[in-house]
Amino acid sequence: MDRFRVEVIAKTPNPQQVIYAALHQDYSEGFVYDDRESWPPEEKCGEIIVKRLLAGDRGHYGCIEHPQIILNCGFFPHSVMQQARTHRVGVSFDVQSGRYTSQRILDAAIGKRDIEEVFYLRPVGHYSDRQGKKYFYSPEQRQRDVEWCLEAAKRYHVDIEAGMAEEHARGKLPFDYRQHFVVSFNMRSFLHFCDLRNKKDAQLEIQKLCELMWPHFKEWTPAIAEWYETSRLGKARLAP
Hints:
Layout: E1 5-11, H1 15-27, H2 42-54, E2 68-77, H3 78-84, E3 92-95, H4 103-109, H5 115-118, E4 125-128, E5 134-137, H6 139-161, H7 166-169, E6 178-186, H8 187-197, H9 204-220, H10 222-231
Antiparallel strand pairs: 1-2, 2-6, 3-6, 4-5
Helix pairs in contact: 1-2, 2-10, 4-6, 9-10
């Protein structure tokens, strides 16, 4: 998991002021843009949003849909993408294609790239299944799995060299090949995604995705992040 990365591509500047403008327009007679010079500063807007929209489970989430953040997420296993796109999360994804981006697999097959840069395996350690049954993923078992991934890459290489289409050859690959993706959230959908996936019973790798996204969100909108950490984080209170 030390290869996982999340970087910001773009984000709405002054997101808390944007939300303030939206909520202010809801009850203002005038055109709020004309009063822009009198809007509170970003930090104060955050306090107003928490007090008027979020605190006490008011649930006024419409205004927080206006700001947007776009993230580039890298080296995550395919299973994370499968989970991330499950449920109605209201986000947009563009995902590295297995049909057009196979060179890294071919490179790994011939030793030009580390096999674990291409395929993901969990670290050695103690785990449990959904029923609570505990087991140990040993160094020996993990090494056998690394070797199996390499053999699969080699078989993929043979098939591609023989003229097989990528979408055909990839059927023999281990499920958790790594993928990069771009994802865009509005602020409400980001918090909803965290409700779904940043909780103790979520799968380990998608929890790590949320963990890596969170500092970017917290730096972007500190007041709302602080409210969320206190009120909702890890509580699985779904779907604002």
